[in-house]
Design brief:
With about 190 residues, the chain is an all-beta fold. About 5% of the residues lie in helices and about 35% in strands. Strand 8 and strand 9 (about 90-95) form a beta hairpin.
Length: about 190
């Protein structure tokens, strides 16, 4: 029969009290409470409240990181928006608006100074956008459109090496419904 020592290379400690700082994965037997114990990772990080966005919305695109983020497009009860906001780690400020159709339900890629916004949904229903725009830290410019209009796609990567995948298309597109497509962007063309 295999033993713990044979697998791990050491025996399980028999302790009268739990260690004050157990190591993640450490195994011991507490002889006072007659309980087997395993050290668990209890704190990975914490959430903190920060500045609020100036435009309430959902289903927007995003790019960047926790100290230099972008939020663009999206929807609210008033409809779709082209607004862009930039985040510096504590506050949001207004950035340049999307140049294409105001839209929502799309992904984003890149950084605050080299962002990418591709596809999306725009009013009236059921319009899917093929718009693709690049952000330079100040303003958006139109770029080569997606091969097909889509919304709900995921997007990842950087402005010169991005991937758009999945999503939804309506008829009369050649393949209406939930999509399995993957489009690669090299900063100028989609494949």
């Amino acid at each position: 029969m295999t033993t713990y020592k044979g697998i791990q290379g050491f025996t399980i400690q028999n302790l009268s009290a739990d260690p004050s700082n157990p190591i993640e994965g450490q195994v011991w037997y507490n002889s006072t409470s007659n309980v087997w114990k395993v050290g668990e990772l209890t704190t990975v990080g914490t959430w903190a409240t920060s500045g609020s966005m100036s435009t309430a919305r959902y289903a927007m695109g995003s790019a960047g990181d926790s100290s230099a983020a972008l939020a663009f497009g999206g929807a609210n009860p008033g409809g779709r928006t082209s607004a862009t906001e930039e985040y510096d780690g504590s506050t949001w400020t207004t950035g340049g608006s999307l140049t294409g159709t105001a839209r929502s339900d799309f992904g984003g890629a890149g950084t605050q100074t080299a962002g990418l916004a591709s596809g999306g949904f725009f009013t009236p229903f059921p319009n899917r956008s093929a718009d693709n725009e690049e952000y330079d830290g100040t303003s958006w410019t139109s770029a080569t459109p997606l091969p097909t209009g889509t919304n709900g796609s995921m997007e990842t990567g950087i402005q010169t090496a991005a991937v758009v995948f999945g999503g939804y298309q309506d008829a009369p597109s050649p393949n209406p419904g939930i999509q399995v497509h993957t489009f690669n962007y090299d900063g100028s063309t989609w494949t």
